[in-house]
Design brief:
Chain lengths: 113, 117
């Protein structure tokens, strides 16, 4: 199994550009989440989904959109990139409603200039 | 909302010495607790988890953690540090979002472990 796959691994954007970070899992997990990691801040929850067609906001949702049309895919969209969105983004999935923890992807390192 | 405090953003130990990484959480009910490890330029890997079974939890790579309810702590230990243990370690607590019907993780800010030869 591939687990949780994130693409791209690295991206540089100009301020105002939009882009989509891709996340796919092949474990048939219902629960998926997006986190951002910033130095000294740990990981903060952006958006999450409890199943296809259902999404909700986390701690830091502003500037990001998500959708969940299939169980496998959970893309994160940056509508108009800002330098404050420079970060490392992690996608994660769980089979047990998150109770037993999440499986993380390898991350996307995004720089907005 | 839950909160997680990791004491020490950076810990250095000598190779072969005891590793102790501290984690305290805030919770009014017994939580689910986790330690994750992140090697440079990689994602997070689950080290171990406490889910209300035994209070002493053993994980991968020789790490273990003890849940102490009276101290609201879940410290991570390893008897003898190895060079390959150098990484960043995150403590996390899961919180049931009753509206969503799912558990969400709240992370501490991380502790970077350096191992000195």
């Amino acid at each position: 199994n591939a687990g949780v796959t994130q693409t791209p691994k690295f991206q540089v954007l100009k301020t105002g550009q939009s882009m989509t970070l891709q996340c796919a899992q092949d474990m048939n997990h219902e629960y998926m989440s997006w986190y951002r990691q910033d130095p000294g801040m740990g990981l903060r929850l952006i958006h999450y989904s409890v199943g296809a067609g259902i999404t909700d906001q986390g701690e830091v949702p502003n500037g990001y959109n998500v959708s969940r049309s299939t169980t496998e895919d959970f893309p994160l969209r940056l509508l108009s990139a800002a330098p404050s969105q420079t970060s490392v983004y992690f996608c994660a999935s769980s089979y047990s409603r998150g109770r037993d923890g999440y499986t993380f992807g390898s991350g996307t390192r995004l720089t907005v200039v | 909302a839950q909160s997680v405090t990791q004491l020490g953003s950076h810990v250095s130990v000598s190779e072969g010495a005891l590793v102790l990484l501290r984690c305290n959480y805030s919770s009014s009910v017994p939580p689910y607790l986790f330690w994750y490890v992140q090697y440079p330029n990689q994602g997070l890997q689950l080290l171990l988890k406490y889910t209300s079974a035994a209070t002493l939890v053993k994980g991968i790579n020789g790490f273990e953690a003890e849940f102490k309810k009276s101290e609201t702590s879940f410290h991570l230990t390893k008897p003898s540090a190895h060079m390959s243990d150098a990484a960043e370690y995150f403590c996390a607590v899961s919180d049931l979002d009753s509206g969503a019907g799912s558990y969400q993780l709240t992370f501490g800010k991380g502790t970077k472990l350096s191992v000195i030869p």
